[in-house]
Amino acid sequence: MRKSAIWLLTGVMIFTFTGLLYLQANYIYIIVINQKNQFKESVKRSLFQVAHDLELEETTRYLNDQIIPFQKKYLGKKQRISRLSTIIDPQELSIAPADRLSSKIAINEELEDPLIISPSFGKSDINPATKAMQEIMDNYLYHLNLLDEVISNVIRSAGDKPMEERVDLKNLENYIRTELSNNNLTLPFNFAVLDNEKNVVYQSPDYAVNSKNVYSQILFPRDPPNKLHTLQVVFPAEGEYLLNSVRLIIPSIVFTIVLLIVFTLTLFIEFRQKRLSEMKNDFINNMTHELKTPVASISLAAQTLNDSDVNNSPQLMSYAKTVITDESKRLGFLVEKVLQMSLFEDGRTQFKMTGLDANDLIASIANTFALRVENAGGKLDIELEALESTIIVDKMHFTNVLFNLMENAVKYRRENAPLELIAKTANAGDKILITIQDNGIGIKKEDQKKIFDRFYRVHTGNRHDVKGFGLGLAYVKRIITELEGTIKVESEYGQGTRFIISLPYLKN
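Request: output the structure for the sequence above.
Response:
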């Protein structure tokens, strides 16, 4: 698949998943908001009904405590009242409680004796029966006004009593629970009663004063403003209750996210496979060119040996043999490098560990490599500053590591500047640092993280003289890691490169 098609598919899928997640999140948000508003309304109705029930309870209690005993004391003559009801039409004598109370208030404002009320009956031309009825009516109205006085005292004095006497605070929880249950709310709750100055009068054991999402209701709202009390209720499980309303939608979001992750991984694998495919193709092309050169040289030398004139020239025959030998070694080295990486992947490589002096090893390799540096028009400097230089390594593999690093310095040198190659050692803590430094073309920042990957080769522009499989630095990294060491690269493009190997040294 073309890269542009992959990117187009990626954009479409990302847009689709983003839109789907947005719609689901918005739908959940709307459901939670609606559920929260319904919850608030249900709680407010419940608390309002609790306050109303407390007012009814208080009124009933006052009636039982004061008005009923008063009626028994002053209006206990049932026969007299019954006889009065047979003479007088009850509709003519009935006075609505509101009218009695308003009449009482008006009389309090105009008269010194509020209990004197005279019915509008004439004093002349009345017979004894009418006179007796008038006396009974006067007595009845008198006691009705006494009852109005009791009710007025109840209304005026109720707010003066402490809340503990007006409400059974310990039983208040049952009121709240009952009203919440009537509104289909069975959540656990905590509550408190606060006075006008926000001081706690009573609270349930688990109530927190600074709780969030507090629902409030004024108790006895007709009390004076400075004596008002507030009922506060909190629901610790409110959040869980609201989430239960969207519990069935959450799995769909989870599945969408899982699909997004799977899609992302699929794209990552696709890009990785595409990159590996390109690297494999580059590897095959490089390997073909690398193998073609020694094969062609060997073939040419063989043809030369078949020439009858060569048999008469010992120099030409010796040259042909030398070419065949050198190119055969080169061909074997290329094949061996590929096999080494294959063995590493299978975990079948075994090291022959031995103690070596790093200073001596680097000096020996540098002397061997000096001729190649000189032929490239450069110079090789050796700086052996490590005092503790004994390391435990596999001599063959570690020698190949140093050769690979020095060979890269020669291969990637700058054409307009003489090569300067430096090999040095130094101690840092309990480690020995081996540095291979050059002034070559350098490595770009974006390539420095990939140079140790298999088959990866840094792009060198139009230069075609640099051959390789992209396995050299991968081999170096693998060997150093197996030896429990580290390797890092420091480079500036166009300035040069420095490889620093860190290995533990063997203490005396």
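The first strand starts at residue 190 and ends at 194.
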